[in-house]
Specification:
The protein is of the alpha/beta class. The chain has two domains: about 160 residues, Nucleotidyltransferase, domain 5, CATH 3.30.420.10; about 60 residues, no CATH class. About 45% of the residues lie in helices and about 10% in strands. It has 13 helices and five strands. It has a five-stranded mixed beta sheet with strand order 3-2-1-4-5, sandwiched between helices. α5 packs across α9 and α6 crosses α7. The longest helix has 24 residues. The two termini are about 20 Å apart.
């Protein structure tokens, strides 16, 4: 059930003391799992998740609430690459122009490459401000992917040429000096977060295509560093590169028996699709 947030006054926004929360509420009860199975049939959890995301509507509802409360510069923030075995995690922050509508904004996971690469320059050209930040593999292995993702998102906000007075963040609270709303599945619900998702995805995918030439044989141009079968096979045969995340089990267990890796591949699909063009 989608919970409708109550938005604060401008004074609360400026003080950064807002406790606004907008999110999709989850239940992991046995009855709900049975209901999902009945609704979607005998399919993987990853497929159920994608169908659920496609059912959500990406709008300016959250932005309009913030604007109506007095916020002027509302930034959407998102990251990509959290579930990858290779390369940095990349985040973007985007402040959309309230007076210019960019049609077609949607969670980058639900868009094909051609559509993302068509939308990305439109976002960059027409947004009031945008920024991208990345946290590299060494930091990911040092502080773990959750904190690395958080750092990348905070760095993206800090790099914005305009200082936002409100943040809409995909499922995370950031250490930023302004009010914010973390929204679960925010990139499928908020146009600003979707725009950030697209910018970050296009940026990271370009990085992976470049790395494919540096580290051939891992299929990075197609799998973008996710645990696709070709990637796992290359890890077993060639071992990890300096750009692999050694703290991730499929990397440090690259020489484990085949049946172990097959089990972990299935686990990865449940946590986030391992197809060639989807993010976690």
């Amino acid at each position: 059930m989608l919970l409708r947030p109550t938005f604060p006054t401008l004074a609360a926004l400026q003080s950064g003391q807002s406790s606004v929360r907008g999110h999709v509420k989850h239940s992991k009860s046995k009855s709900q799992r049975q209901l999902l199975k009945f609704a979607y049939g005998d399919v993987t959890a990853a497929t159920v998740k994608l169908r659920f995301l496609k059912s959500l509507k990406c709008t300016l509802k959250y932005e309009k609430h913030a604007w109506e409360a007095g916020a002027k510069l509302v930034a959407g923030v998102d990251e990509v690459g959290r579930g990858c075995l290779f390369g940095p995690v990349v985040a973007a922050a985007v402040i959309l122009d309230p007076n210019y509508r960019i049609r077609g904004l949607r969670d980058s996971k639900l868009l094909d490459r051609a559509t993302r690469e068509k939308l990305a320059p439109r976002i960059r050209e027409n947004a009031l401000a945008w920024a991208v930040a990345a946290v590299d593999v060494a930091i990911i292995d040092q502080i773990n992917i959750y904190w690395a993702s958080k750092r990348a998102m905070e760095d993206a906000v800090a790099k914005l040429m305009l200082r936002p007075d409100y943040l809409l963040v995909d499922a995370m609270c950031l250490a930023c000096e302004c009010a914010q709303t973390p929204i679960i599945h925010g990139d499928a619900l908020s146009a600003s977060i979707a725009a950030a998702s697209i910018i970050a995805k296009v940026e990271r995918d370009a990085m992976m295509r470049e790395f494919d030439g540096v580290y051939p044989g891992y299929g990075l141009a197609s799998n973008k560093g996710y645990s696709a079968p070709v990637h796992l096979k290359a890890l077993r045969e060639k071992g990890p590169t300096p750009m692999h995340r050694m703290s991730f089990a499929p990397v440090w267990m690259a020489n484990a028996p085949q049946e172990v890796l097959e089990f972990m591949t299935e686990e990865t699909e449940i946590a986030g699709p391992n197809s060639t063009d989807l993010d976690s």
